[in-house]
Every structure is written in C-alpha cells, then in structure tokens.
Design a protein that fits this description.
The protein is mostly beta strands and 240 residues long. The chain folds into two domains: 6-146, Neuraminidase (6 Propeller), CATH 2.120.10.30; 193-240, no CATH class. The protein contains one helix and 18 strands. It has one helix at residues 6-20, and strands at residues 31-32, 38-39, 66-69, 75-79, 84-88, 94-99, 107-112, 117-121, 128-132, 138-143, 154-159, 165-169, 174-180, 185-190, 193-195, 198-203, 214-219, 222-227. The chain has a four-stranded antiparallel β-sheet, with no helix packed on it. Strands 7-8-9-10 form a four-stranded antiparallel β-sheet, with no helix packed on it. The chain has a four-stranded antiparallel β-sheet with strand order 11-12-13-14, with no helix packed on it.
Length: 240
C-alpha cells in the first residue's frame, strides 16, 4: 500500500468507498462520483466478488478488510467474510482467487511484494502472518508473540525495503521487523519504516498536554512539522 501519487490515493479511496458501500454492479469503465473522486472500478457482492455479514438490526456490518496494490499494478482485496484473497486487474477484471480455508480465521491486513503475498490473520486464537506465493501456495505462517497480539495494540502489517514485512502496533506507533532466519524467527523493534535506505518516523502530539496540535515526520536527515488547528489525534506514514 505504499509509494503512490495523490491521484492514485484519490482513486483508491473511491474504490474502497464503493467496496464499503457494497456495490453490486461491476464496471470496468472509469467514472467520476458526485464528490469528484475517480471510480476505478466496482466490485460485485456475492459469489463473484466480496461478501458482507451482520446486516441486521443492532449488528455491525463487516466485510472486506484490506486492499493492496501489487508491483504489477493489480489490486488485491481481503474478502474476509469468505476467507479469500481476490486479485483484480487495474481495469477491474477478476484474475485470481486464493482460498484460505483451513489456513486463516480472519484476514485484517494485506501486503503484496514482487515475490510474495503477506496476510495478517488477526482473528486466530494466536494471530499470525501468512506468507503466500504469488500462485497461492501457503509457504509459511509466523505466529506472533504475546507482546504483538491484539491486547497490545496489534493493528496491521507493512512492507519496507527489500520487501521485508513489519508488524504494526497502534497504527504504526511502534513497529517490529519480522526476520526469518530458518530455525529462528525474531521480531526486531525498529525506529521507523525503511524506504530506499532512509528511515521514516511519525511522532504525533502528546495528548497529555493542553495544546496537542503538532507532530513531526522525520525522514533521514530531514523533518517536517505537522500542525492542525485543534488536537492532532494521530499521525501515520502510509509510504514513501
């Protein structure tokens, strides 16, 4: 989900909004919705697309939990309800389905590199990260230690340099590099995200202060202050 232009971000937001709304019409043609965002394509709901559950009184509706863009420009969607990963071309054509039945309970985040698919199974009794080959074979499952589980703020995964995966707590407030050394698996804490050999960090305001309105993004030897009129509730790095 990383290096992307503002125009691409707008397109992705429009796509995600259409997923969240449960669009039932698939169309490869590009449109502009009333808000001005460009709609890349719509994904059908049901057998040939994504699934939703909980559409009842006093129940929260839930459905697709994650969206990722592969280096080849294709879109991957975590169809969490049906425990599948769906791949679409940049024009919205269905390309691939990976069934995770028996391998995962509930995928909440997804990343795709040039050599592998990484999926966070956050709903399992012991949450873990799946490493999946591009043709759909489960090649590894890394169970997360107690300090990286839900009760300690587990929120997602991300890719850094060389396609390595990191585990995020509280939206990236702290991150841990997953290192597979064969017989030993370690989770090394990092100061920030590594992109092109440079470390990127985001520090939000101290909410204990009376005027928590400023944060700081640091990238290598450079830094940028972020200031808002009121309180800055969070500051996260999406990519570089």
């Amino acid at each position: 989900m990383r290096a992307r232009s503002l125009a691409i971000v707008g397109s992705l937001l429009a796509l995600w909004l259409s997923l969240s709304a449960g669009s039932i019409v698939a169309t490869p043609s590009q449109k502009v919705d009333p808000s001005g965002h460009e709609v890349v394509f719509a994904v059908p709901v049901g057998k040939d697309g994504v699934h939703y559950e909980g559409e009842q009184i006093e129940m929260l509706t839930w459905g697709p939990a994650a969206l990722a863009i592969a280096p080849d420009g294709s879109f991957w969607i975590a169809d969490t309800v049906s425990n599948r990963l769906l791949r679409y071309s940049s024009s919205g054509s269905a390309l691939q389905v990976i069934d995770l039945t028996g391998h995962a309970v509930g995928i909440s985040d997804l990343e795709v590199s040039s050599s592998a698919i990484w999926a966070l199974d956050i709903a399992a009794t012991t949450p873990g990260v799946l490493r999946i080959s591009l043709d759909g074979e489960i090649t590894a499952r890394y169970e997360l230690p107690e300090y990286l589980q839900r009760e300690h703020g587990l929120s997602g995964i991300a890719l850094i340099d060389k396609g390595d995966v990191v585990i995020e707590r509280e939206g990236g407030a702290s991150i841990f590099h997953l290192i597979d050394m064969g017989r030993a698996i370690t989770f090394a804490p990092l100061e920030g995200y590594m992109y092109n050999g440079r470390t990127y960090t985001a520090r939000s305001a101290d909410m204990r202060t009376a005027h928590a309105a400023s944060g700081l993004i640091t990238y290598g030897e450079f830094s940028t202050a972020i200031t808002v009129p009121h309180h800055l509730g969070g500051l996260y790095i999406l990519g570089a």
